[in-house]
Amino acid sequence: MIEMMIASAAFQAFGAVQAGRAAKAEARMQRQQLEEQKKDAQLIALQQSNARRRNLQDFLALNESLTGVTGRDLNDRSLRALQERAREASDETEDRARLQFLTEQRQRDLGIAVANMRAKNATRTALISATSSLLSAGAKYSQVAPKSVGYQSPTYTSSDFVGFR
Questions:
Q1: What is the pLDDT of residues 63-106, one digit of tens each?
Q2: CA angle 107, 108, 113 (to 5 degrees)
Q3: How far, in Å, are 24, 25, 32, 109, 146 from residue 114 at the CA level?
Q4: What is this structure's pTM?
Q5: Rounded to an integer, what is the distance from CA 102 to the centroid of its chain?
Q6: What is the spatial distance between Cα 165 and Cα 160, in angstroms, rounded to a whole number?
Q7: 154: left (phi over 0), alpha (psi -120 to 50) or beta
Q8: Would you kindly state where each structural domain of the chain is located, as residue ranges?
Q9: Alpha carbon distance 30, 24 (integer Å)
């Protein structure tokens, strides 16, 4: 029976440690996934920014080419105002996109921090659970183990010492 208690406690402790390792590995994978998402988002944001800049440049170039066809001067006030509005709209769109990107990156950073915290908590929980299993088994063993009466000094009588003089 005592052997079963010891084996049970050992398996419970081992299981708790393994569960902690698995949870830590899962949190590590989640952190890596979020870090990859951050890198991907950074690349996508750069590509989108480049596309917006190209669109603005294409619009301005088209606008200038139309002035040649229509015979208008490049310094025409309405033409300049149209180009200025296009630049302002492009800047505003760029600023919004940058703010959105930064907000999403902060969310990913928070997710990484949470994943790290989960890994640490899983390790702590596993160690506490394993220790608790072993201590519980020790407490149960003390209830079923034969009671020791402690050290008792032997009682000697004079007949025990016959022949030693």
A1: 888 887 777 777 788 888 988 999 999 999 999 999 999 999 99
A2: 95
A3: 12, 14, 12, 9, 49
A4: 0.62
A5: 19
A6: 12
A7: beta
A8: 2-145
A9: 10
